[in-house]
Design goal:
This is LuxR family transcriptional regulator. InterPro entries: CheY-like_superfamily, NreC/VraR/RcsB-like_REC, Sig_transdc_resp-reg_C-effctor, Sig_transdc_resp-reg_receiver, Tscrpt_reg_LuxR_C, WalR-like. Pfam families: GerE, Response_reg. Keywords: DNA-binding, Phosphoprotein, Transcription, Transcription regulation. By secondary structure, this protein is α/β, with parallel strands linked by helices. The protein folds into two domains: about 120 residues, Response regulator (Rossmann fold, 3-Layer(aba) Sandwich), CATH 3.40.50; about 70 residues, Winged helix-like DNA-binding domain superfamily/Winged helix DNA-binding domain (Arc Repressor Mutant, subunit A). The protein contains ten helices and five strands; from the N terminus they run E-H-E-H-E-H-E-H-E-H-H-H-H-H-H. Strands 2-1-3-4-5 form a five-stranded parallel beta sheet, sandwiched between helices. Helix 3 runs parallel beside helix 4 and helix 7 crosses helix 9. The longest helix is centred in the middle third of the chain and has 14 residues. It is globular.
Length: about 220
Amino acid sequence: MIRVAVVDDEALVRRGLSVLLRSEPDIDVVGEAPDGAAAVALARREHPDVVLMDIRMPRVDGLTATLHLAADPATAGTRVLILTTFDLDEHVFAAMRAGASGFLPKDTAPEDLLQAIRVVARGDALLSPSATRRLVEEFVRHTPAAPAGRPAGVDQLTEREVEVLRLVAAGLSNAELAERLVVSYSTVKTHVSNLLMKLDARDRAQLVMLAYEAGLVVPGGR
């Protein structure tokens, strides 16, 4: 079962999402929260696999809550999926950098939302590769380059790992990586696991951010 927490300041939205999720045999809704403070408390108590997080809420917003969840060892296994009405909003950029695993607009089709939850819980592939890449490219365009240079750990990557990182940033899934590199699926999973460990990244979305910050991929490039 995938354990999910639903966070939104609108009660009707929370209830609607919970009803949808509970209709699925492999998803268990462990709780709802009306703001970021309640979301953090809920996550620490129930340890959900995925938090569906609204980004604009009173008291404590989704960005601040995501920062707390990403920094707390007690919620290290929890993935945050941002739901927003503001496509490519600057707060979404910040949430991705803070540790969110992906984002979806609130008008996403129900079947796509359910698939996104399963993808994020599995940690196996980028959520909406084209949308995530577009978001990161916009992030790079609007964010000054970090003065400290390449992120820690990049210089310790092997040539093959750098190649895999570039392809992950391009939005390829593990299956697509295996086909492109002409290696087994398990070999690809090993490379990705090594990247996550060496770069201290929570998931593939964070690998994409690091690839852009390291200059391995440039906006609009292949």
